[in-house]
């Protein structure tokens, strides 16, 4: 039942070690009834007292007076022992009596999302700029705007460095920490591309840290993949904001994915040519038809349109 789910979430959120705020927020936003159930759990003083303060059928074992480090378990809930429940019960009861909804409910997150073909610029109070490319989603806490959670897409960051308040970008199990910099991040389903134009970025994933300086690029083929380091032209980092894409031996499938995001159109690539590699610069200024005509001339392939979908395929008369 939803009421019981609300109570379980209230219990978990009252634990001082609780950290799963994202999952709680998602659950609250999934259905208005969830928020009602959560509020009811926090407001129900009688339920909290019944849950924590009734005597259980067992008696707590005696703790020797000289066991200064020992912690007496709290008994209840059918005789099960929960050493952490004493503090949890007190915190939940205090919250229920003093407006627990405001004390325990996570701070609402600010979220920005762009559709493919759209762009959006965010300027923080400290002057840092966050430029979202198409098909991008981020969120952050209003009280901690320098801690960005990137859900996917591509972003160019121009960060005002503050050693006391590092600028942090998290994406899945990856953490990027600014060291006063301009850098571009692409992320989709665990695939990651980080390129630094100025300053430095610290990449941290699964306990391993890599420092990226200006002109460095890190790519990773998936969450479990080993990151690969390469060089990038600092002047070309984030070139999409100037309607220019620059590639160095990139698979055509990546070029097509970038164009789909930048132009806001559906482009598919024939498996026969998707693994081909491309090096060069492509202007993405103009209509999708104009941009794809330029690509067709550069790569020597055929690009045909069928309704709202473009398809990149071998040149006519070609066997590959």
TrEMBL record:
<protein>
    <submittedName>
        <fullName>Fe2+-dicitrate sensor membrane component</fullName>
    </submittedName>
</protein>
<dbReference type="Pfam" id="PF16344">
    <property type="entry name" value="FecR_C"/>
</dbReference>
<dbReference type="InterPro" id="IPR032508">
    <property type="entry name" value="FecR_C"/>
</dbReference>
<feature type="transmembrane region" description="Helical">
    <location>
        <begin position="82"/>
        <end position="104"/>
    </location>
</feature>
<dbReference type="InterPro" id="IPR012373">
    <property type="entry name" value="Ferrdict_sens_TM"/>
</dbReference>
<keyword id="KW-0812">Transmembrane</keyword>
<dbReference type="GO" id="GO:0016989">
    <property type="term" value="F:sigma factor antagonist activity"/>
</dbReference>
<feature type="domain" description="Protein FecR C-terminal">
    <location>
        <begin position="245"/>
        <end position="305"/>
    </location>
</feature>
<keyword id="KW-0472">Membrane</keyword>
<dbReference type="Pfam" id="PF04773">
    <property type="entry name" value="FecR"/>
</dbReference>
<dbReference type="InterPro" id="IPR006860">
    <property type="entry name" value="FecR"/>
</dbReference>
<feature type="domain" description="FecR protein">
    <location>
        <begin position="112"/>
        <end position="201"/>
    </location>
</feature>
<keyword id="KW-1133">Transmembrane helix</keyword>
């Amino acid at each position: 039942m939803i009421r019981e789910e609300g109570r379980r979430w209230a219990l978990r959120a009252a634990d001082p070690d609780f950290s799963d705020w994202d999952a709680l927020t998602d659950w609250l936003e999934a259905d208005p009834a969830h928020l009602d159930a959560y509020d009811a759990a926090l407001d129900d003083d009688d339920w909290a007292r019944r849950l924590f303060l009734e005597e259980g059928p067992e008696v707590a074992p005696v703790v020797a007076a000289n066991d200064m480090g020992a912690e007496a378990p709290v008994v209840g809930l059918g005789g099960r022992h929960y050493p952490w429940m004493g503090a949890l019960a007190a915190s939940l009861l205090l919250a229920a009596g003093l407006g627990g909804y405001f004390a325990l409910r996570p701070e609402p997150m600010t979220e920005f999302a762009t559709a493919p073909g759209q762009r959006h610029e965010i300027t923080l109070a400290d002057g840092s700029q966050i430029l979202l490319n198409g098909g991008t989603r981020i969120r952050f806490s209003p009280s901690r705007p320098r801690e960005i959670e990137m859900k996917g897409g591509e972003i160019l960051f121009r960060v005002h460095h503050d050693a006391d308040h590092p600028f942090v970008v998290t994406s899945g199990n990856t953490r990027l920490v600014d060291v006063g910099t301009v850098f571009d991040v692409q992320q989709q389903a665990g695939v990651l591309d980080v390129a630094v134009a100025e300053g430095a970025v610290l990449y941290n994933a699964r306990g391993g840290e890599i420092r990226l300086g200006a002109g460095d690029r890190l790519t990773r083929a998936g969450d479990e993949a080993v990151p690969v380091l390469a060089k990038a032209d600092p002047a070309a980092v984030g070139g999409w904001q100037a309607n220019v894409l620059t590639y160095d031996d990139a698979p055509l499938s990546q070029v097509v994915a970038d164009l789909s995001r930048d132009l806001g159109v559906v482009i598919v690539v024939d498996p026969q040519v998707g693994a081909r590699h491309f090096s060069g610069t492509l202007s993405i200024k103009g209509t999708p038809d104009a941009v794809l005509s330029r690509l067709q001339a550069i790569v020597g392939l055929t690009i045909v349109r069928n309704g709202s979908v473009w398809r990149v395929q071998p040149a006519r008369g070609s066997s590959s």
